[in-house]
Amino acid sequence: MFDSKIQPSNDRGHLLTEQSNPRSTQLDRLATTDLVKLFIKENRFPQQAVAAAANELTAAVDAISDRLRQGGRLFYLGAGTSGRLGVLDAAECPPTFCNDPSLVQGVLAGGSPALLRSSESLEDLDESGRDDLHRHGFQTGDCLVGITAGGTTPYVLGGLFHARSIGALAIAIACVPSDQAPLPCDIDIRLLTGPELLTGSTRLKAGTATKMALNILSTTVMVRLGKVYGNRMIDMATSNGKLMDRSLRILRDLVGVKREQGLALLASSGGSVKLALLMKAAGLSRDQARLVLEQHDQHLRAALDSCGVTLTQL
């Protein structure tokens, strides 16, 4: 039922994400096979959109990495699909990179309940974005990635304004051109995926491109922070059978230990794959290996080089 009290703050019909896609004007008349083929064809656009934003993504990775090295944190802020994607990316960092959950945080309009039940009306409150950041202890040394597909979400705009006002790093991700929806930010990432097949449904191409961009941001930042060796996630948590098996395969592949030896090595390293690799390769105790890693900013490759050791099996 239409609520006459809800009025749009401005006419958003001009936005790229709200326009009608000429390739789907007969969507309801297509055979299922043609529907599927059309969706597959349209899903090429997110890849192209992300590729076009490579320079901005690069700048964001370097800027975020610098802040995190100095003790800052990374926050994603959004409403609806955009916010849920930020929460998803943040939640997947600790098991993948064994970082403290506070290092990367997803802030969603409506909080945890909005993950399961839509609360999109809350996105119209610009002060809520600022207030939610306050509640999470957002500070000057931190980084904010404000995610708003259409570029006009007051909740995200409020958060970005607040980030800039206190000198924090403000990064915006939107799927409309900057002239359609300017955003207050230091780095402006535009993922221009075009009109959706289902008009205005930005959980489709816009959501796909946003997920791709967040994958790039968080993973590449963690690479820069030394949580990866080659293409192995050497700082992951051995918190379940799958991750333990992966850890043992890494030890097998890089330092040539069998399963039982790997289990003993992980036990002696306190469950740290990175420490275990350095201990085995350089013949160090856990305390010695920890000290060497500290001296090289937790980068395993630099630590190995300082010991004159190379993992030749990679």
Walkthrough of the structure:
There is one protein chain. Strand 3, helix 7 (154-165) and strand 4 (169-174) form a beta-alpha-beta unit. The chain is built from 13 helices and five strands. It has 314 residues and is α/β, with parallel strands linked by helices. It has helices at residues 32-42, 45-52, 54-69, 80-97, 113-116, 126-135, 154-165, 205-224, 241-255, 259-268, 273-282, 286-295, 300-306, and strands at residues 74-78, 104-108, 143-147, 169-174, 187-190. It has a five-stranded parallel β-sheet with strand order 2-1-3-4-5, sandwiched between helices. The chain starts with 31 loop residues before the first helix and ends in an 8-residue tail after the last helix. It folds into two domains: 16-224, Glucose-6-phosphate isomerase like protein, domain 1 (Rossmann fold, 3-Layer(aba) Sandwich), CATH 3.40.50; 241-306, Helicase, Ruva Protein, domain 3 (Orthogonal Bundle). The chain is 48% helix and 8% strand. The model is unreliable at 1-9 (pLDDT under 50).
Structure summary:
The longest helix has 20 residues, at 205-224. α9 (241-255) crosses α10.
